[in-house]
Amino acid sequence: MNPIEISPAQFKSLCEQFLAMASDYLTEMDSRSIPAKVSGAEVDRIFGAPLPEIGLAGEALRAFSDVVQHSRVQNGRFFGYVLGSGEAAGAASDLLCSVLNQNVTAWRSSPAAVTLEKTVVSWLARIVSCCEFRGVLCGGGSAANLMGLAMARETKAPANKRGIPSGPPLAVYASTEVHMSIPKAIALLGIGRDNLRLIPADNSFRMTPSQLEQAMLRDTERGVVPIAVVGSAGTVNTGAIDPLAEIAAIAAKFGAWFHIDGAYGALGAIAIPHKFSGIDRADSISLDPHKWLYQPIDCGCLLYRDAIAAQRAFSYSGDYVRALNNDPIESFTFFDESIELSRRFRALKLWFSLRYHGLAAFRKSIENDLQHAQRLGASIEATADLQLMAPIELSAVCFRYVGGRHTESDLDRLNSEILRCVVKRGNVYLSNATLQSRFCLRACVVNHRTTNSDIDRVATEVLAVAKEVDSAN
Ligand SMILES: Cc1ncc(COP(=O)(O)O)c(C=O)c1O
Fold first, then answer.
1. Which pTM does this prediction carry?
2. CB 295 within 8 A of CB 267
3. Which residue in 48, 98, 415, 467 is a FRET match for 134, CA 20 to 30 A apart?
């Protein structure tokens, strides 16, 4: 037997041990500190052991409890970043994904996996009212944004063959609130970060359409070519939704591609579709089922209106992957419409999770997140020493401690220290946002485990910590 082969019985035994650890983790997560209470040096020491020449067999498993103990916990009081809570039915099916080891390159490589991916993508397209769109799953919102903008560049200023043309400069437009993955994509695509025009947002952190139009006009008059406009359907800081229909009309007027970054918010359309009107006018849309469909990482998605545009950007086939027949279903290739060749069977967990729970359960869960965010907002507004810093459009709540007599810059420092201490205490996990140059605490609820009492802990923790920090200053 090959030295790395294990018998089905050994496999089963390993899985049973993993299963026990996983279910213990789920059972204990609520009572654990959210961040691991351990230093970086200690974690380095634990996991820095040298590579063994001779296998440790079952002994190797012991280190898994260290992995569990030194991982951040995602219980109902985790509100950091925009991070979905990783629902367990999806997680369970991930094991089968790895065992089946399907390579979702093309139908001929993995018929069931390719077909399931097409099915779940069509479900996602339907959820956001873009039934005629096609799409691909990918690693996340950043990868989807990169692919969407690659399609935009290749459609509006083809460069795949001869490189970026030396003609007039190109420009892309997005609001000042845009996610960092957009400038990153623009840099990678050779457009140049300086050619991203950051359009001012209004007091609700939504892009101002009149300013967009003026910027595009100014550029065209100077001979700059506007190739794409990026609208956000849920900004990373506050969850603001840009006025998508108005932006679509302006992008069309200038012949620019319209990409929507819906990685945080667009799947909220399951519960509140009216908030996303205009989304169907996009050329491409990023979604992130590993955020607001609670899937275990990774599971992103890019939807696009025109498969030819995707092929224009991504199709370049070697003979080794040539389709062997002309049947329209069996000759289908994902690698002609996306960056990756070898691809995980990401659709399995999403397909299983959606079928296991049903769409109504996800709608309810998203409604809970929305209500929890409103509940937190109300508790902040009812507390004299806390101030809400942005409207709550989706499930992100930005606020800060404003007690005592402090200058604005003292408040920035104070709130930054409050955040550090709140996270260190481990009872609730918040992150931060800078809004209009002010440092804010931020809770983002994309968490199917959160209850009302979890939400009520936020203000209590912040006030308790603020008292300590303030008196120590
Ligand atoms: C609005 C927005 N776009 C894109 C991304 C990037 O998504 P991912 O982390 O899946 O790459 C995020 C992540 O939080 C986001 O909030």
1. 0.97
2. no
3. 98
433 bridge partner residues? 440
User: Which run of H or E residues covers position 435?
Assistant: strand 431-435
Work out which ligand 1 atom sits closest to the CA atom of 81.
14
- Token digits of residue 269: 């359309």
Q: Which residues of 155-177 are buried (b: 16+ CB within 10 A; e: fewer)?
A: bbbebeeeeeeeeeebbbbbbeb
Place of tokens 């009107």: 277
Q: Is the dihedral of CA 445, 448, 450, 455 positive or negative?
A: positive
Amino acid (one-letter) located at 173: Y
Evaluated on CA atoms 325, 340, 282, 252, the torsion sign reads negative
What was the pLDDT predicted at 323? 66
Q: What is the DSSP string of 451-471?
A: -HHHHHHHHHHHHHHHHHHHH
Query: Given ligand 1 and candidates 236, 294, 446, which is best to mutate, with the most ligand atoms within 8 Å of its CB?
Result: 236
Q: Whose CA is nearest to atom 5 of ligand 1?
A: 141
List the helix and strand counts (H, then E) for the chain. 15, 11
Which residues form the pocket of ligand 1, taking CB atoms under 6 Å from any ligand atom? 81-82, 140-142, 179, 181, 232, 234, 236, 261, 263-264, 288, 300
Query: With 80 as the cut, is the pLDDT of residue 319 above it?
Result: no
Structure tokens at 324: 């062997």
Question: Coil, strand, or helix at residue 416?
Answer: helix
Q: How far is the CA of 368 from the centre of ligand 1 (A)?
A: 21
Residue 358 gets the label, from left (phi > 0), alpha (psi -120 to 50) or beta, of: left
